[in-house]
């Protein structure tokens, strides 16, 4: 029998592509940048990729110690937050969104740690009765370039972290330098609360105080650009480890 302490099992959601000529496969396939998994491993977690099967969401989450809802180059369907679809909301991925919403709802119900990244934060807001800006440049033309022109492994702008928030406690300071790759954003957080904003007022992080650990960030902390990114993953994995030690998770 192994003497190693069990690592918390962290479910990580996947993107899906339809496949076709000249692509990785002619048939539908899943995809994920490696640094999502690498950030979990570096923080002390055991990542596992999750398929798109909404009917199995509760069974999947029952075996997890934590959940990461990842981002992607697509939009959240406005019907999920009760808003007519504008022309600026373009690519939807209904199957992926349905699967991630089912996993997110099951994770919130079971109260395991959840981290929403970019589109994952936006889905979290919709699940918590919030709303989204469908296109920042249309609704706030004087906003910062939230689809930054420089490489995504570099910072694009600064975010200001709200005092007396879980994110503020984790990061330990009032600002972070973050990357930025989104044209939509959270308009209202619903039952969540705002924990960070960009200098132009765009919401950059939310958290759900009623949950043990439920944080969404609009940037991509898996690139580990700012020390606060590593601190966020460390706190998330520690919360997942606490789930494992409690006996409620999977050994």
Automatic annotation (TrEMBL):
<dbReference type="InterPro" id="IPR011697">
    <property type="entry name" value="Peptidase_C26"/>
</dbReference>
<protein>
    <submittedName>
        <fullName>Gamma-glutamyl-gamma-aminobutyrate hydrolase family protein</fullName>
    </submittedName>
</protein>
<dbReference type="InterPro" id="IPR029062">
    <property type="entry name" value="Class_I_gatase-like"/>
</dbReference>
<dbReference type="Pfam" id="PF07722">
    <property type="entry name" value="Peptidase_C26"/>
</dbReference>
<keyword id="KW-0378">Hydrolase</keyword>
<dbReference type="InterPro" id="IPR044668">
    <property type="entry name" value="PuuD-like"/>
</dbReference>
<dbReference type="GO" id="GO:0016787">
    <property type="term" value="F:hydrolase activity"/>
</dbReference>
